[in-house]
Amino acid sequence: MFQLLLEDNNYDLFEKIKSLNERLNNYDYGIPNQLSDSDEYFEKYYKLLSPEEFEKYKCGVCWDYVVYESYFFKKYFSNIKFETYFQLTTNENDYYVTHTFLIFELDKNYYWFESSWKSECGIYKFNNKKECIKNIMKKCKYKNYKQYLCKYNALNKNMYGMNCKEYMNYMIKKIKLYN
């Protein structure tokens, strides 16, 4: 289903992307200087990091990783088309899980660039964008939960510094039910 890639065409470019992925895979997941893993702590103290803050702390949640990945792709891989997505999985009891991710296109294939979801770290190749997103959403699926998705601009500087509630309110306005 997923295939870790090593592309012959654009080898040097892919090696640079792979190097970024390997570096980010070693960064920590969480809030910088985090004192607790509780949801309450996250909701009270989380702030979306700017790319500079993420690089300084070498730590963040998926929301922060995607901001940094977007910054890096825009600055160093400007000829590669990439998109960022926000995914929400929820049940009727208002319990929810989110994930953000970056996909990019290279040599007429689509790739999932993953660094924050530690058990899924890597770069995965797909034949098209629909297949790519479908497989990521399948990984995020919980039984009897609804899934929502939206494409968004992770480099919107107005988002930097948003707390958890502000970020969620911003994203919820954009999401649509994913089938």
Give a brief description:
With 179 residues, the chain is α+β, with helices and mostly antiparallel strands. The chain contains six helices and eight strands; from the N terminus they run αβααβαββββαβαβ.
Structural account:
The chain is an alpha+beta fold and 179 residues long. It has one domain: C8orf32 fold, CATH 3.10.620. The protein is 36% helix and 25% strand. α3 crosses α4 (62-76). The longest helix has 15 residues, at 11-25. The chain starts with 10 loop residues before the first helix and ends with a strand. The model is unreliable at 1-8 (pLDDT under 50).
Q: Key terms for this structure?
A:
two-stranded parallel ribbon; disordered N terminus; C8orf32 fold; 179 residues; alpha+beta; six-stranded antiparallel β-sheet
Adjacency order of strands in the biggest sheet: 6-5-4-3-7-8
Mean pLDDT: 91
Q: Which oligomeric form is depicted?
A: single chain
Q: In sequence order, what are the helices and strands, one letter per element?
A: HEHHEHEEEEHEHE
Q: Runs with pLDDT <50, length 5+?
A: 1-8
Task: Estimate what percentage of residues fall within beta strands.
Answer: 25-35%
Q: Biggest β-sheet, characterized? A: 6 strands, antiparallel
Secondary structure blueprint with pairings:
Blueprint: H1 11-25, E1 28-29, H2 39-45, H3 51-57, E2 59-60, H4 62-76, E3 82-90, E4 96-106, E5 109-114, E6 122-126, H5 129-139, E7 146-152, H6 164-172, E8 176-178
Parallel strand pairs: 1-2
Antiparallel strand pairs: 3-4, 3-7, 4-5, 5-6, 7-8
